[in-house]
Amino acid sequence: MALVEAKGVSKRFGSVRALERVSLTAAPSRVVCLVGPNGAGKTTLLRIIMGLLEPDEGEVRVFGRESWDESLRSRAYYLPQEAGLPKGLTGREFLSFIASVYGRGSADRGAELSGLGKELDRRVETYSVGMKRRLLVAAGLMVEPELLVLDEPTAGLDVSHSLFLRDAIASYAKEKSAAVIYASHNMLEVQYVCDEVLFLHKGLLVEAGAPQEIMEKHRAKNLEEVFVRVAK
Prior knowledge:
Rossmann fold
């Protein structure tokens, strides 16, 4: 059974078309990626899925329900692109706080996932952008949600830490039978982590499918080449 089903979702902000009849299904043990440049509609769709925006048209069901409540929110973890961290806490204290909010997980496990080592004893306001993203993703994996929704999770990370988090996210989906929805503008990155890719361009779904199948269909070497051909 799919954990997320979005059907024919449309959203406008004034005269701007953010989404036009976009559909998405996210099932357990699968990583679904939304790919496209800034302004493609990725963040808007994620916010609608998480119940933070109402669609103008279409239907969204999460865990089989049409609306969110607190019991559902404890089963999901959402990392927005612009997510910040509360000042005054150390990284380790932040992990303990998230574990207490969800009622599960441990700071030790979060520390292991973050790879931040002794830096966890520093206050989070002293962290670089990349360190903050590592901590936030680690917190999400630590509490083991059934649905993990990540908006540009590797933004600000260097290559080695991007690889580490990508592998951790892909492994998590399979090991915990979780559904992951992962938005990125980095098409080469998602080629290696996603089971299914949805290409968004100016609010439209212009292509979808497994990465290898899409590349073969368009006789392309990578997903960037595919996007250039379908985004017209």
